[in-house]
Amino acid sequence: MHAIKERKLETFRELGTEPGEWKVAKILQCEFDEYGKIVNPIFKTTGYQFITPFFDSIMDSTKFNEFLSQHKDNRLSGGPFTDNCQVCGHEIKNCWIIIHEERKLAMVIGCVCAQNYPELGIEEAIEIMWTQKYLNIFKDWVFTTKHHIWHTNQFQRHDSQGNPRFWCNGRRYIKKDAHSFQSELGRLDFSSIGKKEMLSLIRRAYNRDLPIPQELKKFLRHKTSLDQYFH
Ligand SMILES: [Zn+2]
Fold this sequence. Notes:
Shape: elongated
Number of helices: 10
Bound molecules: zinc ion
Radius of gyration: 24 Å
Number of domains: 2
Structural class: alpha+beta
Largest sheet: 4 strands, mixed
Distance between the termini: 37 Å
């Protein structure tokens, strides 16, 4: 039962390769779900030959029967699946494509399997695509926040203690805190900023009741997925 699922490393080696020689193909286009995970990626695979080491391996009748039995179990546990991971053989819904640059090979891999091998670069690929997609929205938000936030009706000066303070949606802010957040936004280097830092700033703004972009708000809803961004 476990022989197929444990193929993983063996698959890379049987091809005469090491996992480190493979990397995620360039993503041309994708969407993101509310957890920040890539959905429906389109990969650039021109010039690469697709191989199916897992399908090739099940030409052996013993393995084939084992494979059919796993398929049956998987379907019962909540398919439908769209493809098979060519590294471990498991049925998958979320297909990624990895390539071997030197040998011009490409194969389908499941995202769970891909995450077992950080050298494939799946996290970096997600980071790049996410940053590309949301950077302009984030830049607009930073500009609005740092230049105009003080002029919105949400802020009012409050001088009862003789110290300038700000109120926002019923919460009091010490001017220094608001100013330091504002100047932090002013010092951002957009050329090197990534998903983690962007979401961290959005989260801090959210905690200060500052308006945040609707498109990015969805990423703040899920505490469990956010935990990984802020640790
Ligand atoms: Zn797999």
